[in-house]
Write a structure and sequence with these properties.
single chain; 249 residues; mainly alpha; Rhopdopsin 7-helix transmembrane proteins; two-stranded antiparallel sheet; 8 helices; 82% helix; 3% strand
Length: 249
C-alpha cells in the first residue's frame, strides 16, 4: 500500500485528535457527576467509561500507526510492522453496546424494560461488530469484505428499527424539557452509526484502493467515533443534568 505524505499526516492528525477528544471527554463526564442525581449517575459513569475505553484504544491505534510507517525526507515507507486494525474493533466491541445502554439508562424506564432493551440492543450491537471484523481484516477491498459487511448490516438494521419504533413511545413519556434532547440523542446514534457502513463500503462504491482507501477508512471511522461517543455523550450528560434538576425542583 502506497501512502503519500499528505495521507499519512491526515491519518496521524485524525488519530491525535480522536485521542485528545476522548480523554478530555472522560474527564468532563466524570468530574460532572456531582451535577447529576443518584438515579442517573450510572448512565453518566458509563458515558465516561465509553470515552475512556475509546481514548485508551486510540492511544494504541496511534502508537501502532507510528510503528507501521516511517517518514524520511517526506517519503512514507512501511516499516514491516503491520498496522493493527484489531484495536478499533476491540474498542467497538466494548463501547458500542454500552452506547445503547447509556441511552436506555438515562431515559429512566422501568427496571424490566431497561434490562430487556439493554440485552436485545446491546447483543445486536456486539453481533454487528463481530460480523464486520473478518471483512475489515481480510487484507483488501474484495468480496470477503463485502460479504461480511453485508452480514453485519442485519443486526444494524434491527437496531435502527428498534430505535425508531421501540423507543418512540418511551420518548413520548419523557418530561417536556428533555423530550427533544432524548429524541435528538436517538437521531445522533442512528445518523452517526449509519456513517460507519458508508465508510466500510466506500472503497467499493468509489472504487478506491491503496493509500486513498486507507485514508478514507481511518479518517471516516475517527469522525464517526467522535460523534457517536463524545458528542453523543455530551447529550446524555445534558439529559441527566436536566432530569436531575426536575427531580430537585
Amino acid at each position: 500500500m502506497d501512502l503519500t505524505f499528505g495521507q499519512y499526516e491526515l491519518i496521524y492528525n485524525a488519530f491525535s485528535f480522536g485521542t485528545a477528544t476522548f480523554l478530555a471527554a472522560t474527564l468532563f463526564f466524570w468530574l460532572g457527576l456531582t451535577q447529576v442525581a443518584p438515579k442517573y449517575k450510572t448512565a453518566v459513569i458509563i458515558t465516561g467509561l465509553v470515552t475512556f475505553i475509546a481514548g485508551y484504544h486510540y492511544l494504541r491505534i496511534f502508537a501502532s500507526w507510528g510503528e507501521a510507517y516511517t517518514v524520511i525526507d517526506g517519503v512514507v515507507a512501511a516499516t514491516g510492522v503491520p498496522f493493527n486494525v484489531a484495536y478499533r474493533y476491540v474498542d467497538w466491541l466494548l463501547t458500542v453496546p454500552l452506547l445503547l445502554v447509556e441511552l436506555i439508562l438515562v431515559m429512566g424506564l422501568s427496571r424490566e424494560e431497561t434490562v430487556r432493551k439493554s440485552i436485545a440492543l446491546g447483543g445486536a450491537a456486539a453481533l454487528m461488530i463481530v460480523l464486520g471484523y473478518p471483512g475489515e481484516v481480510s487484507g483488501g477491498i474484495d468480496s470477503t469484505r463485502f460479504i461480511w459487511g453485508a452480514l453485519s448490516m442485519i443486526p444494524f438494521l434491527y437496531i435502527v428499527i428498534s430505535l425508531f419504533s421501540g423507543l418512540s413511545e418511551s420518548i413520548a413519556k419523557q418530561p417536556e424539557n428533555v423530550r427533544g434532547l432524548v429524541s435528538m440523542a436517538r437521531w445522533v446514534v442512528i445518523l452517526s452509526w449509519s456513517f460507519y457502513p458508508v465508510v466500510y463500503f466506500a472503497p467499493f462504491v468509489m472504487a478506491l484502493d491503496g493509500g486513498t482507501a486507507t485514508a478514507v477508512i481511518e479518517v471516516g471511522y475517527t469522525i464517526a467515533d467522535v460523534v457517536a461517543k463524545a458528542v453523543f455523550g455530551v447529550m446524555i450528560f445534558m439529559i441527566a443534568v436536566r432530569k436531575s434538576q426536575n427531580a430537585s425542583a
